[in-house]
Write a structure and sequence with these properties.
The chain has 11 helices and 6 strands. The protein has 314 residues and is an alpha+beta fold. The chain has one domain. The chain has a 4-stranded mixed beta sheet with strand order 3-4-6-5. A two-stranded antiparallel ribbon has the order 1-2. It comes from Paramicrobacterium agarici.
Length: 314
Amino acid sequence: MMLALNSAGYPREVNVLTDSTTRLLTREQWVERAREHERRSDAFTAGWRARKASGDKHPIDDFLFTYYSYKPSVLRRWHPGAEVEMADAAGQPRAQWAWYASGTEHGSLRVDAAAYLAVKRAGVDVIRRILERTAARPGQFSCFGLHEWAMVYRQREHRHEVPLRLGQQGTDAVVDSHSIQCTHYDAFRFFTPEAAPLNRLRPSRETQPELEQPGCLHAGMDVYKWAIKLGPLVPGEVLLDAFELARDIRWLDMAASPYDVSGWGAEPVAIETPEGKAEYVRRQRGFAERSNALRRRVIEALDAAERAALAASA
């Protein structure tokens, strides 16, 4: 382990090995990985692309493309991650992509981790700090998804053009009868003015690294956001696994929301009942385990980038 300070002055441990761990993929290997990535990505985005052409909307699946706003073309682009060289790739289009450089083998390409980190160090350190601290905390499993309910509390107009399952009065009554314990700033900032004071915490962008915890559904979805923000440092397989996790979480997020999304195939998880609460927590715990596993994989990708950058400067 190497102990270093990030741009914010926080210590971080980086797995830096003294010997080279770079792997060389043959042309056949990396071409097949890129093609498989494209196939999997296309399957994930097929519905969104069809709806864009037809003008239809999907209140569950569209979230991953409207809120996070990353185009399918970005998701479709495969990267090997740091410490990997691609043989016979110098004449390929990816040779012109940002953050790529010639490898140690004749005609090979690699991700230029040193150049990437030199430019984007501050943002990378923030992402690492959030991922590491979130994964290190125990999950909280008593929020019951009330963040979505707090976003429509005592409001006539709602973010989604979907009817409320219990109506406005019934929805407000559920909020009034529960304690709201949202730890996620990007959920809390959409609370209605009447709901915000009811939250036990006051999440902010500044306190995000201190409050994020693995039981939070939105923190789990955000692993996808962090993975895609890190661009070529994250292997394509990790990125698509993070997208798949975000998609699965979103279905529970909306099934447990006050909205009636049964018309889109999501059976309600009625968190206003003991049975619904138990079902929500059961699935929430599973997502916490999956999201922490992915956080570790993203952190490992960052460790690989640090090693590659150190090797390049030696």
